[in-house]
Amino acid sequence: MRSMLKSSYSLIAPIYDLAIEKAMRRARENSLLALPRNSSCDVLISGVGTGLDLPFLPSLHRYTALDFNSAMLKRARPRGKDLDINWLLGDSMNLPFANESFDHVVLHLIAAVVPEPELCMSEAARVLKPNGSILLFDKFLRQGQLAPLRRMLTPLSRNIATRMDVVFEETLPAGLEVASDEPSLAMGWFRSIVLRKVTQA
Fold this sequence. Notes:
The termini are far apart. The chain is of the alpha/beta class. It has one domain (3-197): Rossmann fold, CATH 3.40.50.150. The chain contains five helices and seven strands. Strand 6 and strand 7 (190-197) form a beta hairpin.
């Protein structure tokens, strides 16, 4: 991770919840409804941030919560007190797990934060078991969408908070298929996407 981005999120951590918690709450909750409610699974939350997803997670699963910033993890821990969680400081673009370690991976507002979203996506796919799912909630441009202002601001915003020019279709690694893709917020800039890992014939 770039040191400037990590430092920025250490400064942002105390105000992060005030900025986005209420606005994103319904979208987070709706995305996480795709997690199973009838059998225990191993779930990776890659880029857990301050833990805003945690109140909406079913308690029967075993979770691994990873983030690149210790200040964010510190704020997340109290929200996970009633869940079975392993906390880990790490990089979503270079996950410290073996292939096919998790039944499901949650990527909420992280693919557009990391410097190389395609690496974040390919790493999530690598650690996902066959037939497993990735729950993706983030802001994405559509293929061919001009969005000149977002593209113009990205060289600045990518170093302090987030990219605004990520095209989802350009980050999708081989072996994953789109099970659903729904507009979520900001007239479809934010999308809620479920990906499935295709089993090899």
